[in-house]
Specification:
The structure is a single chain. With 628 residues, the protein is of the alpha+beta class. It contains 17 helices and 30 strands. Strands 7, 8, 9, 11, 12, 13, 15 and 16 form an eight-stranded antiparallel sheet that branches. The protein starts with 16 loop residues before the first strand and ends in a 7-residue tail after the last helix.
Length: 628
């Protein structure tokens, strides 16, 4: 697409580059196809050919003949096993077009890597083994490709030599895939029979399949429509970096996601809403009078406004949306399941916020597209959920903008990516529910009580002594005239949490509710004692994040499992050992001990009374029981 410049402007040259990926089930020949394409398109250097010949003799699967998959499979494990594990990106060009291809793995356990490759692709080449036809993984990859915004696909029916170049087999597979494509909205499908190992219909028409009258794969790729760079759309520039080399310059750097920018254009900074005008546009080679998506530029503004990494610079007359609650579609990418109610980090563009999954509406069967009720998502599951963020963000639905509607979820403990998601739309309550300003705040309420409000969070195994110790601490504080409240794990299950069981997702929701109640009580100026097993570090970290520094103290009541079982006042461990009590912490459900608790109480060395005295002394040392 060409951008019409205004008089005196120079339109930037847009790169005619098609990004595509290869996907499909395992061992369908994806890497071989790409390797053959690179070879036949004469894109390989002499040293690459020499290496390919040497590696084919050493590791190849074709009895000394060139094994083209080795051109793409770069990991040693890939070469040894003859499979693709990681995403391999390759650049090549023909006289007509430049290409970036992502060769993605077919194994179900590496679906996350396929999602990575599809997230930036414009077209999918979906391979099918002619002997096997359309498989579950074929459908999964096609569904994910469409979900991630890919609207065009090439169905490459590979290994046609192993079915006698049968036209009937090809037509059956094409019809099967076309029917599924129609159901997922993938209507632009070109089907082609190929033999990747020999090059049939890769770059040249195959004489062995004269019944196929269409173009070879390379011609299909050269003729595929290029994506619209959305230059005519309103400006959207996520701020990646604030460039401040000296006191006289402040620039805001990032890649334009949509639209154009010109000096003098009125802009708005989201989510805050401040407005200014573009003063200058700086590119790699100097000052510009026009910048167009997807250029990377630095903008300076005409007025001093607060702009930081994660903010979105948009056209003032047509801003993006701002919200804190969404419906989203999630692809779960981790062995540990997604639990509704658990809080993760959400990274959208250059902004990172905390996001809680609540609720999980349903998951999707990728074979039948049926919506199934679910309370969790397992590895490779696709589901629809609601997300609640800890603050509002600027966004656009994924259907409008990949860059501003696509996100990843990150585990707060491991910092690993666990899910990929697409914003469908903002929830109406996100716009209608606002914080009400109050004149009496927590500091005033705490001063009235002559103390500093905080949460004392006691965690440990059942039978560790948490409730006993918390009760003694509260008695001691009450004797001092302090204002307290004790939230006990058993007691709240008679009311607030009586609808929850003891599955992992119910435990997550149990702690989420108690953390929110604790925050309200701290806001009331109270010293809150929480006595809960709270077995998962992630939820304890979520609870801590709700409070200001110095308001949350984690106390690990450390009792070995054997000692807790020996005490077993309520007989719970005996029931769990007999299998009468499922999901019991320490027996068939894990307990994740704190790694950096403010206090550790060893109940094999201290009595409950001595432990309570230590906690009271700790609160005094931290000036909790002194007037603020």
């Amino acid at each position: 697409m060409e951008v019409a410049p205004r008089p005196g402007e120079t339109a930037p040259a847009l790169q005619q580059t098609l990004r595509f990926l290869t996907c499909g089930s395992v061992d369908d020949g994806k890497s071989t196809l790409i390797g053959r394409l690179l070879y036949e398109a004469n894109t390989l250097l002499e040293d690459q050919l020499a290496t390919l010949e040497r590696e084919s003799r050493r590791l190849g699967s074709r009895a000394g003949e060139l094994d083209f998959a080795l051109l793409v499979d770069g990991l040693e494990a890939e070469r040894e096993q003859g499979i693709t594990i990681d995403v391999a990106y390759r650049f090549f060009a023909t006289p007509r077009r430049r290409f970036i291809v992502a060769d993605t793995p077919g194994h179900e356990q590496y679906t996350r890597n396929m999602v990575t490759g599809a997230s930036t692709a414009d077209l999918a080449v979906i391979l099918v083994d002619a002997r096997k036809g359309v498989l579950t993984q074929t459908r999964r990859h096609a569904y994910l490709a469409r979900l991630l915004g890919i609207g065009a696909a090439v169905l490459a029916v590979n290994k046609m030599d192993l079915v006698g170049f049968s036209r009937a087999t090809f037509e059956r597979i094409r019809a099967d895939f076309a029917a599924f494509g129609a159901r997922i909205g993938l209507a632009d499908i070109s089907a082609i029979p190929v033999v990747a190992t020999e090059g049939d219909n890769v770059c040249q028409r195959s004489a062995r399949m004269s019944w196929y009258e269409g173009p070879p794969l390379l011609r299909l790729l050269e003729d595929a429509p290029l994506p619209d760079v959305a230059a005519a759309a309103p400006l959207r520039l996520p701020v990646q970096w604030v460039n401040r080399p000296h006191a006289d310059f402040r620039g805001f750097a990032g890649q334009i996601a949509r639209g154009t920018a010109r000096p003098g254009d009125a802009v708005r900074i989201l989510p805050g809403g401040r407005e200014s005008r573009i003063a200058r546009i700086l590119g790699p080679d100097g000052e510009l009078d026009l910048a167009v998506a997807p250029q990377s530029v630095t903008l300076t503004l005409a007025s001093e406004v607060d702009v930081g990494r994660g903010d979105l610079i948009v056209a003032a007359e047509s801003p993006a949306q701002v919200a804190s609650q969404f419906e989203a579609t999630l692809v779960w990418l981790h062995e540990e399941p997604l639990l509704q109610g658990r809080t993760y980090l959400m990274k959208l563009g250059t902004r990172t916020v905390a996001a809680t999954v609540a609720p999980l509406k349903h998951k999707i069967n990728v074979n039948t597209l049926e919506q199934l009720p679910a309370e969790r998502l397992e590895l490779n599951d696709v589901g629809v959920c609601e997300l609640e963020l800890d603050r509002a963000i600027a966004f656009e639905p994924y259907a409008v903008s990949r860059a501003l509607g696509g996100f990843i979820l990150i585990d707060r403990l491991s910092n690993g990516t666990v899910g990929a998601g697409l914003i469908n739309f903002a929830l109406r309550r996100s716009e209608n529910v606002h914080w009400q300003a109050l004149d009496v705040d927590r500091q005033l309420r705490a001063r009235q009580k002559g103390q500093r409000a905080c949460v004392l969070w006691l965690t440990g195994l059942s039978g560790a002594g948490k409730s006993t110790i918390a009760n003694l601490v509260e008695k001691a504080l009450a004797a001092q005239g302090r204002h307290t409240y004790l939230l006990d794990g058993d007691n709240v299950r008679h009311g607030l949490n009586k609808d929850l069981g003891f599955t992992a997702q119910d435990r997550v929701e149990n702690i989420r509710r108690i953390a929110e109640v604790s925050r309200l009580m701290v806001d009331a100026g109270l010293i809150v004692l929480v006595s809960f097993i709270s077995p998962f570090r992630s939820e304890r970290r979520m609870a801590r994040a709700l409070f200001a520094p110095g308001e949350f103290f984690e106390v690990f009541v450390d009792t070995p499992l054997a000692e807790a079982e020996r005490r077993d006042v309520k007989g719970l461990y005996r029931k769990a050992r007999r299998g009468e009590l499922k999901n019991f912490t320490g027996i068939d459900s894990p307990y994740e001990a704190p790694e950096a608790a403010e206090m550790r109480i060893d109940t094999t060395q201290l009595s409950a009374a001595a432990a309570a005295q230590q906690i009271v002394a700790f609160l005094e040392a931290h000036k909790v029981t002194l007037p603020p």
